[in-house]
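Supplementary notes for students who missed Thursday's class. We covered one full example, reproduced here. Read the sequence, then the structure, then the short commentary at the end.
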Amino acid sequence: MNWQKTITRRTVLKLLGGIGLMGLSPSLALGVDPLKKKNDFMDEFFQKNYRIMSKKEKLEAVERLKRRYQKEYGKTFDISTQDANNGTKYVYLLDIGRCIGCRKCVTACMKENNTSRGGEKSSQIEYIQVLKFKKGKPMRLEDGDAYYNDKQVPDPDAFYMPIACQQCENPPCVKACPTKATWTEKEGMTVVDYNWCIGCRVCVNACPYGARKFNWGKPNIPIDELNTETHYLSNRPRSKGVVEKCHFCIQRVRDGKYPQCHKACPTGVRKFGNLLDPSSEVHYIFKKYKVFRLKEDLNTEPRFYYYSSVG
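Structure (token representation):
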């Protein structure tokens, strides 16, 4: 019997108590690729949490992933391990008075971040959800229509509010994770080490913004639409049984670019930048406009702000 093929998520979960005491990686819970070399299998089994890896260990982990992705997708991936930029605290602002509800940000995000397009054995994963509200009525998130199918946007009697991960300074999802697979990087983005996620979904329940998504099946991504420019902590291909979320496109931001949703917006309602830079656009907006955050009473301290430059 091939013992590598008999290991299942249930088996690993039963072993996690002992494994946790030894400080070993629960990456087996992600499933086993039978095409991987035996040494890759064992190295991944004993792989440390990304935060405590040495540079050498990070490089070795990246090379293992490259070999796996080459076999699985027939493509060569560039997987960055670039650290956070010094002297940065990134924030996102969105001008809801000018959002037209076109959802181009949603589509661009999916392509950039290699999220599942859905299908018979997997669900469609969207980091961004655009809510439609009727003008003149009190705004409650519960009343927002996320599934509007208008023939033409914007609806003159409505306004729109895109919602994604709020990148909280005090994130309840991080506190809830039993394996410490998720944490906040020093420049503000909350990330996930997919190799350490055991799929318990406790973080999903802890998030008050519905921002975390679970892969119920193997992500379905057309081969010709795969983005091979990735970062270990962001848009590298995920496996069945792990949680993922928005990360402000770390693979782009740490390379000096804007998040893809920012780039795709046709009306320029999305603003992203370093709050510590007094010459930045986001710093200017904080001075000029009244901003607000979602569910501020929960004391999660989101880094995602809303404002309106209209009216």
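Commentary. Residues 1-6, 17-36 have pLDDT under 50 and may be disordered. The chain is about 25% helix and 15% strand. If anything here is unclear, bring it to office hours.
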